[in-house]
Amino acid sequence: MIEIADVSRSFGDRRVLDGVGFRVEDGRMTGFVGGNGAGKTTTMRIILGVLSADAGEVTLDGTPLAPGDRARFGYMPEERGLYPKMKVLEQLVYLGRLHGMSPAAAKTSASALLERLGLAERADDTLESLSLGNQQRAQIAAALVHEPIALVLDEPFSGLDPMAVEVVLGVLRDYAAQGAPVLFSSHQLDIVERLCDDIVVIGGGRILAQGSRESLRSEHSGSTFEIELAGPSADAGWVRDQPGIVVTHLDGGFARFDADTDDAAHAVLRRAVGAAPVSGGSGTLVRRFAPVTPSLAQIFKEVVK
Question: Which CATH number fits domain 220-294: 3.30.70, 1.20.1260, 2.40.50, 3.30.9?
């Protein structure tokens, strides 16, 4: 587990991180989201030791990170950092050797990654001859070639088409499944929501929200509910007359509404169930009743405003 504890950092008189703290658990994917200038890249660079913190610390399994630990991390910066005129496979093998792998092990790992990422046919091409999306795939392979114990990836999905995104998602899931902590930043909130176990939202150098995907949804779900009725006589218009209820959308047997309390919401359900036939008949049936779960994009807008 990687833990960032009360980390602060300033550049001159500008404070870019202010008491940042969160955990990246083993075997879990943690999405790190925030607007431009929120502090994501600075935090990642401090984790990797590229920058130092003014205060706070970063630990791995409770022990302060040492250079040897960081050398075993896989890091992908937002800016592409590979050699443009070097062949892709040759470059990955070279990077694996820099991390202490034998030539054979480095070539085996590099070749397997290129195959998995759909670049096997471009192994002997120079990086600069690849499309931007394929360059991004090669950059991801470079972060993984030495079989790291943890991954820290800054915007790994930038420039990837939908098919490439799915390929990369599969690779990252495999690393997490092997027990590695995986932290990545992304502006693509739909991908973060679909992929991540845990989410950290940063803004203005401070952590604004964090937790598992499910707990954040529950915490920010508010008091909006939906009910859907079925049957020949299905009509949810009566929901408007329920005490403590404000209907925001009504369409035949469907109603979305805000409730003052949970009791008011469940009173709607009790009335609907009470009106439904006990068995058989052609009356109204309750097809669905549930709180409205916000998307990550909605949660993000709520916490950064």
Answer: 3.30.70
